[in-house]
Amino acid sequence: MIGTGPIAFLPDITTSRERFQLTQRIAYLMRRLAPVEILSPAITEDQLVKQVLERQFRLTLLPIKQYLEWSRIEGAYGLTRTSGPTVIGYFTQPLGTDVLAQIKSTNRLIILDFQRLRYTDILLIIRSLLVDNQRYGLTPLFSESKIYCDAWHGRERIGEKLDLLMSITEIKETNHWFEQRSRLRLGLLGLWSLVYDEGPGRIEFGQSAAALLPKAYVQVSASHEVVAIRVCYTHPMWGSREVIEQIQSEHNPLNSAFSLARQSCDLFRVHNIVENHDVEITLLYFSSHPSESNHSSLRSVWVEPLTAAIVNELPFEMPSAKNPKLVYFPKAEMVANNLGAHPSQFVDLQHQLEIKDRAISLASKKLRELTHENQELNDRLHELKLGGVGSVYHLSLPGHEELTESLRVRLEEMKDGKEKEVALISLQAVIEMNKPLKKKGAA
Q1: 215 and 279 in contact (C-beta within 8 Å)?
Q2: For residue 268, what are the β-bridge partners?
Q3: What is the DSSP string of 378-434?
Q4: CB-based burial, 351-385: b 16+ in 10 Å, e otherwise
Q5: Spans of all domains in the chain
Q6: Does the N-terminal or the C-terminal CB of the chain have fewer CB atoms within 10 Å?
Q7: What superfamily does domain 144-347 belong to in CATH?
């Protein structure tokens, strides 16, 4: 039993008899973790607020109907708290995501699926919720499994990261996880989009100096029962309140990356550290696959702000001698499944990737140079067609013979006397102007 305060549990009497017995069974199993007090189903919100303040319950579990409607209990604990007692909602029958529209403005949202999660899965989550310093990170969820670490920089390839995920021994050698590889990849792809399309990877995209800096840190751990994918990065404009608003409107096309990450997993957990704007997103997958066949139904979600004082597991920690549980991803086997080759053929894979990067960079540079030269040639050809740079096209003036003949023809066509008189004067003027030219030319 964990040395924490008691748990208050309010049964759901609106469900079927079988579901009611299920909740009773869960309450009984939670006694392994802490004392559990079963509340009267007829309790009112005022009575509940009074009891939680007097008894100092560590966790208070309510049916989702009461959880969404009763808001005074959160106010009694403190709406802006970052640790301490927690109120949790649960549901025991299928529900659509439209129920989340009833959520009032709040900084935390914790709803657990008691219908499809197994007892062991529920106890794992409750154990993590009971102690403040076990709510953050992957170590409280995996006591013996390795934690694989990686850093995402400005210039990364999502295909490589997906292959790295599937190269983990605990995933590729476990049948039920290998069968669920599409869900794991979708979850990682959603997290990738949150970092590079909406998070810190988007701000300095394309800048060579910024590409050397890590944009996010990733950790993955897997056991026979659970797989967790954790991403940590800094986002000053993304707190728990904004996360809850996105959950309520996740069918909006603008939230496609967020929805992809949330709907691929069985438990979606988001923590933001209020002192430094660090964000931790964790996707949990259980071996029972409770959400696999119910994509549009409500599933477990855990969103809350935390204070840095209770964080024991650093969000940006990488493998070192001080923490032997942290290891790097295996790299020699990351493309073996895609190419159908033996992993031993990719021992020097990192060197191959660097060579490919240099080749692509040189090819891109050469392509830009050829494009520039082609544009210059086209501009030069256009100028030559117009007579050259700075040239002016001069129209040739008609000679005196052509001008005299045209005036004579025009004079014959005229019928008005005044027009003929004007034309005749013009003709005589041309003849007079031409006489000096002829003399000068003869001289």
Answers
A1: no
A2: 283, 301
A3: HHHHHHHHTTSTT--PPPPPPPHHHHHHHHHHHHHH---HHHHHHHHHHHHHHHHHH
A4: eeeeeeeeeeeeeeeeeeeeeeeeeeeeeeeeeee
A5: 144-347, 352-390, 400-442
A6: C
A7: Histidine kinase-like ATPase, C-terminal domain (3.30.565.10)
Residues 313 and 136 sit within 8 Å (Cβ to Cβ):
yes
Rounded distance, CA 195 to CA 217, Å? 10
How many of the other CB atoms lie within 10 Å of CB of 346?
A: 17
State the DSSP H helix or E strand holding residue 278, giving kind and residue range, or none if neither.
strand 278-286
Quickly tell me which residue has 């409280």 as its tokens: 140
Q: Give the Å distances, CA to CA, from 228 to 177, 219, 283, 288, 392.
A: 12, 8, 6, 14, 74
Q: What is the pTM of this model?
A: 0.72
Tokens of 197: 């399309």
Among 157, 152, 168, 162, which residue's Cα sits nearest to residue 188?
162
Give dist(CA 82, CA 274) in Å, integer.
8
- pLDDT tens digit sequence for 408-440: 776 666 655 666 666 666 667 666 666 654 444
